[in-house]
């Protein structure tokens, strides 16, 4: 299992540092909230455009090969951009950073789909302990989220863009070098060689045939809209409204990741005792209430605490989704179906960035409140009709 976990940790840390560090780099360069929102959009939007090719590539060539190529390509892009930033003027540097955001988002999609496919195989092999495997994998992701934003913020504060980009490139090279080389693709070769459009249709058809998964994905998409808005708005709120440094932004997300790690560790025993449904509903409540309060936080420490509680509940919801997903999706179409679910869960992120870029900093608190309402409604329907659909499906099994 070390051949799965260690590359995932290195890749997830590089992705996390790029996701949170690039918008901070734009804010420090331009002092513009709107351009920070644009950078956030460019980080996430390419992932939506490449979800189909990523799933088909994993089904056809195997997750290990796709993972290695994506990590190596990200290291190459970062290695080209880092020295160019030093030798160009501000306008050209801004364009290069925006290009880096788009390329990093695209390559992250490929490596993420590949890593999730390998994790799904391990979950199916674990049987009834699938939620424990998924909690370990999510713990790895949250560890990366703990290290990435803090390291990115501190490197930008004291070593500038070159230090942060050098670390991102080094982690990407490490992930490519230690990735497993003999793992087979989860799909049969005859199925994986289908055209990309057919794989896209297969993923949607599979999702429609699994109402429990579809309802839960829809609810979490609304939850991700709130999370995406918080991620896009936090640099502006902390630096502009609360008067803190860029390093303080990294501290917020690192504390949130620590709270998420604790929640994931606790939820293993809770799911064993009370089941996925009850734990999922409690997590939805823990996620929704802080989201309403965040819009009214008037101090740095109150904002940090509410973000940490929000992320803790969101992480437990992620364990529920991953466990259901690994149980329900047929292995022969896993890559294509996973790509569709990832599309639906990632779509709110660039939408959140667009909302912030259009509305401006004055409307941030209103947007957060609206997203909190949508999140609450989405999770209520997801954990009511989704669980009910799953129960009916289980009753007809022989």
TrEMBL record:
Record keyword Transport present: yes
UniProt keyword list: Cell membrane, Membrane, Transmembrane, Transmembrane helix, Transport
Listed transmembrane segments: 20-45, 66-86, 92-115, 136-156, 162-179, 209-230, 250-267, 279-295, 301-321, 333-351, 363-387
Molecular-function annotations in GO: transmembrane transporter activity
Domain of life: Bacteria
Pfam families hit by this protein: MFS_1 (PF07690)
Keyword Transmembrane: yes
InterPro entries documented for this protein: MFS (IPR011701), MFS_trans_sf (IPR036259)
Listed SUPFAM superfamilies: MFS general substrate transporter
A single Gene Ontology CC term: plasma membrane
Topology relative to the membrane: Multi-pass membrane protein
Subcellular location: Cell inner membrane
Designated name of the protein: MFS transporter
């Amino acid at each position: 299992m070390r051949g799965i976990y260690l590359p995932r940790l290195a890749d997830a840390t590089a992705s996390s540092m790029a996701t949170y560090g690039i918008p901070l780099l734009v804010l420090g360069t331009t002092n513009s909230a709107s351009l920070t929102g644009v950078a956030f959009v460019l980080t996430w939007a390419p992932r939506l455009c490449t979800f189909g090719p990523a799933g088909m590539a994993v089904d056809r060539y195997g997750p290990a090969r796709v993972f290695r190529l994506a990590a190596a390509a990200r290291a190459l892009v970062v290695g080209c951009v880092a020295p160019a930033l030093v030798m160009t003027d501000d306008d050209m540097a801004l364009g290069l950073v925006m290009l880096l955001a788009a390329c990093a988002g695209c390559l992250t999609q490929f490596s993420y789909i590949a890593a999730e496919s390998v994790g799904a195989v391990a979950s199916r092999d674990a049987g009834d302990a699938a939620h424990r495997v998924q909690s370990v994998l999510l713990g790895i992701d949250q560890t990366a989220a703990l290290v990435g934003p803090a390291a990115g913020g501190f490197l930008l504060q004291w070593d500038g863009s070159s230090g942060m980009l050098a670390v991102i490139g080094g982690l990407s090279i490490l992930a490519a070098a230690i990735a497993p080389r003999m793992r087979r693709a989860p799909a049969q070769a005859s199925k994986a060689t289908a055209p990309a459009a057919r794989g896209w249709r297969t993923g949607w058809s599979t999702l429609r045939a699994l109402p429990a998964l579809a309802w839960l994905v829809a609810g979490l998409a609304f939850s991700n809209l709130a999370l995406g808005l918080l991620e896009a708005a936090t640099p502006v709120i902390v630096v502009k409204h609360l008067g803190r440094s860029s390093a303080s932004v990294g501290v917020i997300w690192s504390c949130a990741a620590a709270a998420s790690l604790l929640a994931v560790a606790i939820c293993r025993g809770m799911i064993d005792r009370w089941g996925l449904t009850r734990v999922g509903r409690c997590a939805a409540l823990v996620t929704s209430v802080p989201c309403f309060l965040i819009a009214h936080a008037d101090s740095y420490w109150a904002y940090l605490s509410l973000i940490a509680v929000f992320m803790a509940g969101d992480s437990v919801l992620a364990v529920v989704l991953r466990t259901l997903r690994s149980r329900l999706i047929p292995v022969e179409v896993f890559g294509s179906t996973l790509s569709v679910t990832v599309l639906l869960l990632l779509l709110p992120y660039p939408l959140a960035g667009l909302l912030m870029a259009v509305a401006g900093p004055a409307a941030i608190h209103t947007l957060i409140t609206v997203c909190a309402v949508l999140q609450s409604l989405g999770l209520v329907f997801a954990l009511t009709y989704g669980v009910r659909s799953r129960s009916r499906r289980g009753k007809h099994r022989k």
